[in-house]
Write a structure and sequence with these properties.
Elements lengths: L10 H36 L4 H16 L2 H15 L2 H8 L3 H27 L3 H9 L4 H16 L1 H14 L11 H12 L2 H29 L7
Helix pairs in contact: 1-5, 1-9, 2-5, 3-5, 5-7, 5-8, 6-7, 8-10, 9-10
């Protein structure tokens, strides 16, 4: 069996690998930022004592946590354009719809997990802190923004990092709708070079290295912003 890595001498294959990595990182970063922003919004809505809003949030979370991520991606790509008005559908189809819908699906999916992590952090904060914030003149939203959420996010850093690692690996699911991320490009290279073992070994090492970097950055953040901080 030939274990030559001659594919690395092919400029086109190397370019495909690099472009796949860059697109994977773009998809990961976009979904992380978008998901975290949505999770913060959901956390704010959760603190409003309104049963309907909490019920809708619960449905949102249950859907995104119990339906396979790949199905959610396909629902957005194949299903959502069908229910949109034709002008909007035509406008969407002019752009990179595969990447856009994958980004939306992954952002919404991970936001449900981030929200649960932040909500657990909120529950860990003593109610007396909110009362103390209100007693010094802070409004309800100010107490939320300056007292509750910063501490909740800090407490939630370890599970958020773990979920971010899963999000990074889930970017490979975007290949099912034609997003040219790393796994998609690896499959294309394998189909043209027939060096199956070599290209999948290379992709495995790339995923492993990036995942370890995310884990190291997460560990540094956990040490810099420990949950049991003082002051």
């Amino acid at each position: 069996m030939n274990f030559s890595f001659s594919l690395l001498e092919n400029p086109e294959a190397v370019h495909m690998l690099i472009s796949g990595v860059l697109l994977t990182l773009r998809l990961f970063a976009g979904a992380l930022v978008g998901g975290f922003a949505i999770a913060l919004l959901l956390s704010c809505l959760y603190l409003i004592p309104f049963r309907v809003s909490r019920g809708l949030i619960a449905l949102y979370v249950e859907y995104h946590r119990n339906v396979p991520t790949v199905v959610q991606i396909m629902v957005w790509y194949f299903g959502m354009p069908e229910v949109l008005p034709e002008p909007i559908r035509l406008w969407i189809n002019q752009g990179n719809t595969e990447f856009s819908f994958a980004l939306i699906a992954l952002s919404l999916n991970v936001s449900a997990y981030y929200y649960e992590d932040i909500r657990s952090g909120i529950k860990a904060i003593a109610a007396t802190q909110v009362e103390a914030a209100r007693s010094i003149g802070l409004g309800a939203m100010q107490a939320l923004a300056y007292v509750v959420l910063p501490q909740a996010v800090r407490i939630s850093i370890p599970p958020i990092i773990n979920r971010s690692l899963i999000l990074f690996k889930d970017t490979s699911l975007a290949m099912v709708i034609g997003v040219t991320e790393l796994t998609y490009q690896v499959k294309k290279i394998e189909n043209t070079t027939f060096q199956t073992f070599q290209i999948f070994l290379i992709s495995t090492l790339i995923y492993l290295v990036i995942s370890l970097l995310i884990a190291v950055l997460g560990a540094q953040m956990s040490r810099k912003y420990p949950a049991n901080f003082k002051g």
